[in-house]
Amino acid sequence: MSLKNWRFQTVLWNTKNLGGSVKNRMQSATPTITLRLNVRISVGLLAMFLLKAWRSTAFGVYGYLNFTKSGFLGHSKNFNPEDMSTRIDGKNCIVTGANSGIGYATAHGLASRGATVYIVCRNKERGEAALSEIQSTTGNQNVHLEICDLSSVNDIQSFSSRFKAKEIPIHVLVNNAGLLENSRVTTSEGYELNFAVNVLGTYGITELMLPLLEKSQPDARVITVSSGGMYTAPLTTDLQFKGEKFDGVEQYARNKRVQVALTEKWAEKYSNKGIGFYTMHPGWAETPGVTKSLPSFSKSLEGKLRTSEEGADTVIWLALQPKEKLVSGGFYFDRAEVPKHLAFAATKSSHDAIDSIVATLDSFGNFSI
Ligand SMILES: NC(=O)c1ccc[n+]([C@@H]2O[C@H](COP(=O)([O-])OP(=O)(O)OC[C@H]3O[C@@H](n4cnc5c(N)ncnc54)[C@H](OP(=O)(O)O)[C@@H]3O)[C@@H](O)[C@H]2O)c1
């Protein structure tokens, strides 16, 4: 938070040259400086500053202890190896943003267990390279490339009509594509870029894939890769960070909070469709995205970050578990359901805003099924 609103009202430097007796004069040979500082700050502003400071500190400490590689290694002592031994031959999975990082590791993990995997990438060359790497290293030829720029509503709609024409059931949709853009970038359709990919793209593709997901009920599931960064942000209806000095990290955290609240909403709204909705966060993994967007963070935690495979572990776990074991609308980390809010962070009640957010997202595109 900027401190620009703090008003340093009066700064009074008062140098006294004391008079009086010789003795007194000798005692006060050093001049005294009296500094009087009057600071006026509104109680609301101070409370918000302290709340934000608390959220960031709690997140930093909790993250350092849990989200790093050592956190993964600690948590993995409780993992059941059998959970990951399930084969999913014949199941159709979509993984967005699968040409690098966690998305690539997820697509690879699903393909190695026999699934038919559709990798959705925005760049043909990067997509083709990932496709051939996954096919050759898993021996699974049922991996297919779909091109779609998830920052574009038009592109999502045309991808969706193309894909729906296949008329196949979708068992697993992994909403992984995401980014943290530090400066304000506006897409050709007029949306702030982080919001366009992380929120509108995730919302659009999920809504449009519902008919195909329904075809595989009761086993269908949507897994959205959120971020622990969302712990620092309440849900806000200011989806495109208007009216404030742009802060990419804050916008990313807000986007990731929307994904968690949206997942709760979907679980409730579509509870009769046989589709499970889950969000998870991967911890802190060293990926091309993190290196590019958070270079100092990445450098300062060099050697301590998770691998992409460790980041993808819970995504794959969620795809493989019997649905009875999972809570639709839940938020997962390291193969367990975890709280959506940090203690005393005052983010819980903000989720009430989700209906108005959904209405806004619907107004941005024709996503109705
Ligand atoms: N790594 C972490 O520590 C961490 C922590 C919390 C959450 N996450 C989340 O994990 C997910 C994967 O991130 P990552 O760390 O693996 O980063 P990454 O290596 O940069 O992967 C992001 C993927 O999303 C794709 N993507 C970005 N914009 C897109 C668009 N407009 N249309 C289609 N695809 C697009 C990227 O494609 P290009 O290669 O073409 O850019 C890439 O394939 C993200 O949702 C991220 O927020 C990561």
From TrEMBL:
InterPro entries: NAD(P)-bd_dom_sf, SDR_fam, SDR_member_12. Pfam families: adh_short. This is Glucose/ribitol dehydrogenase. It comes from Cynara cardunculus var. scolymus (Globe artichoke).
